[in-house]
Amino acid sequence: MGTVLTILIVVVAVVIVVYAIATYNGLVRRRNEVEEAYRQIDVQLKRRYDLIPNLLEGVKRYFRQEQDVLTEITRARSAAMQPHSPREQAQAEARLSGAIGNLFAVAENYPELRSERVLLDFQEELSSTENKISFARQHYNDSVQAYNTKIQSFPAVIFARAMGFTEREYFEAAGPERESVTVSYD
């Protein structure tokens, strides 16, 4: 009877250890997926940040009277490039998008500017980049949802808390800042 009980205890202990190892590895994989998805957002945001100086250089001669618009874009770009939490990053991106939107609104007053190649190219690149950013954000949020679900589900929640896995924040904009930049030259 003692031998059977010992074997049973050893089997249960092995099952618990194997389950803990599998759970830990699964949690690490999900956490790494979240971090990789966030880096993809950074890649697309960097692309957008790199586009902005070219735009500003191209429109600078038309905007001698509108320096505050250019200054606001520069300021918003600098602020957005600082490290933030996903929520703060979304808010900084919304301010930058709003500043760029103001530039395009003011550009309506300059008919010759509207046909400038630099503005048309920027419009096309911005639209493409915005789509990529949107896709990257969706991928990140999907990864966060899978990770958060995993660490909140029983029995993984027992190991997750003990091993230091915590919930991740979604990438979401708030209020009217949810709108993306709309560029139109009708």
Automatic annotation (TrEMBL):
Pfam families: LemA (PF04011). Keywords: Membrane, Transmembrane, Transmembrane helix. The keyword Transmembrane helix applies. One of its GO terms (cellular component) is membrane. InterPro entries: LemA-like_dom_sf, MamQ_LemA. It is a single-pass membrane protein. It is found in: Membrane. The chain crosses the membrane at residues 6-27. Its main location: membrane. Belongs to the LemA family. PANTHER family: MEMBRANE PROTEIN, PROTEIN LEMA. This is LemA family protein.
